[in-house]
Amino acid sequence: MVRIHDALDTDALAHGSTSGAAQQDETINQHAFDQQLDEIPQDADQPGGAGSAHSIASDEVADVVNQQPDPKLVVISNRIAPFDPNKPQTGGLAAALEPVVERCGAVWVGSSEECGDGTERPLRLEPTGTGYVSRLDLPAADHPGDYREFSNSTLWPALHSLPDRMSVSEDDYDSYQRTNGFIARAVFDARDRDAFWVHDYHLLPLGAQLNELGIERPTGFFLHTPWPAPDMIARVANHRELIKSMLEYDLLGFQTNRDLNNFVACLQTHFGLESRDGVVTTARGRTRLQKFPIGIDPRQLADYLAADLSPAEQEKVSSILQSFEGSKLAIGVDRLDYTKGIDKRVEAFNQLLRTGPHSISLLQIAPSSRADVEQYQKYKEDVESAINRVNAEHGTDRWRPVHYNNDSFSQAALARLYRAAHVGVVTPLRDGMNLVAKEYVAAQDPKDPGVLVLSKFAGAAEDFNENEALLVDPNHPEEIAAAISKATHMPLEERVARWRSMMDKIESYTIHDWAADYVSELDKSRVTVPAGQFHHLGLGWTNEAQMPLYQNHATALTAFNEVAPGDAALKEAAYADVKSSFEALAALLMHTQDRLWILPEPVSLT
């Protein structure tokens, strides 16, 4: 029998390995975690989501794989959705993950947005839909360096290719790592769930920290922001360590081909690593790289349009729309963030109104964001000054060109405002996807739709081409102004054709398709087939994504044994094939869940 990675013993195979510190309380904490799940009543059975697995080597094995239940996920992010349709969403990530957790029974772990003393406590679960939420009080001592400085003053501008906005500090990086370690230890209670799905730039090294604790389940990461070119990420302190830690994940997901290609270029530039068919192989093992463009739920948005608003919000929306009666309306909805290009958008309206006075008004909804970060305070002042100048130059006692609102709106209220707008202006300097673009399109009246003006540097521009949206360079206000002018004069027939094409894409790939595709791919990293149900294995577990290479090894052995004993040269060449195929198989199996593998040779060498 061929023994692979024989440093592990049978007990480690059966029960997994953990760090010494984690082992002390693992039995008690895991029991408490499982007991919480048992005690929480469920209103409905968990729906399917991951789809069936592909065949491995035989119909018998395929049947075993297809019988595997949908994976029980642990979803981890910095921010957690409010799970209340009457409350505003706090960003694209929260909007994307809320339906995933509610529908598939995942445990979603994230910040409570309150700081604690760093004491580590068992996960506390709150039911939501078929899923659960656990909010952590992250350590107060590391919060400024982690969240305000490294995450949002170093990584955020770097990922959006805005080096002038960056600040760099080694101490902040240490806080970032310690916070990730705190979260990893917190989710250790959930280590026996099937897979871990980690989200966004706050948690780049979390997969490595989970592995260090001995969590042996598949781990995936999805980046909601863009990923920059190699020279830009090189400006981030410890960028090599960060990228290396990302390769501890089994699956890395990106919004667009541009982001995926930039990451591959970074691996080549900074490590000399190549990606082959979307797979990067390192000493740890294989990491798969894939594009998963995030979508929305158009049916839910239609429900929002039909839903009643609260009396207070109905009055607020009616008052806003009443102020635009008699003029065309453009709408922008963004967090008050310098990556969103709001200042350039306001300047575009300034230029537009100089050539077409009173032609259109802008409703700019911009809830405050990261108000404790100096860069954001300054940007807020710049935006408000620009708006005041435009209103002073072009406004009258009865008409204001730019209406600026820092309030947060429910999804139902936003849907009504989207529908009322003749033009949706989505012009970020860089964006991972920007779901506002898709929400605006989905909210339109099919018989009289508005027109989307879209930054070519938003991820949504990879989904919507120039025959659908009006694509612009967000750094050039004159381009934005020209596109808005074109939109306001566009014939109905063209507007309907553009809208219909975009809507078809939105309906064909929703947020639920995005989640199902990602989870299905992550599930391929899962240890799925017990050894007793797969005749090639004597002890251990196999993984459907890895076993095809065992067939390469078996084929090479068969070919070797078919060579005539007297043909020494051919025998030597065949043996080289056996050796290389075995080394390829061993390299992949050694990292998979870090388990003991024993593979019997189908035919011994002769």
List keywords for this structure.
606 residues; 9-stranded mixed beta sheet; 6-stranded parallel beta sheet; alpha/beta; disordered N terminus; 19 strands
Please explain how this structure is put together:
- With 606 residues, this protein is an alpha/beta fold.
- The protein is built from 22 helices and 19 strands.
- The strands form 4 sheets. The protein has a 9-stranded mixed beta sheet with strand order 4-5-3-2-6-7-8-10-9, with helices on both faces.
- Helix 5 (92-104) links the parallel strand 2 (73-76) and strand 3.
- The two termini are 15 Å apart.
Relative helix content: 40-55%
Give the strand line-up of the largest sheet: 4-5-3-2-6-7-8-10-9
Q: What is the global morphology?
A: globular
- Which band does the percent of strand residues land in? 5-15%
Derived from helix and strand composition plus strand pairing, the structural class reads alpha/beta
How many helices? The count is 22
Number of strands: 19
Mean pLDDT, nearest integer?
82
What's the alpha carbon Rg, rounded to whole Å? 27 Å
N→C terminal distance: 15 Å
* Parts with pLDDT < 50 across at least 5 consecutive residues: 1-28, 42-69, 527-546, 590-606
Q: Major sheet, described briefly? A: 9 strands, mixed
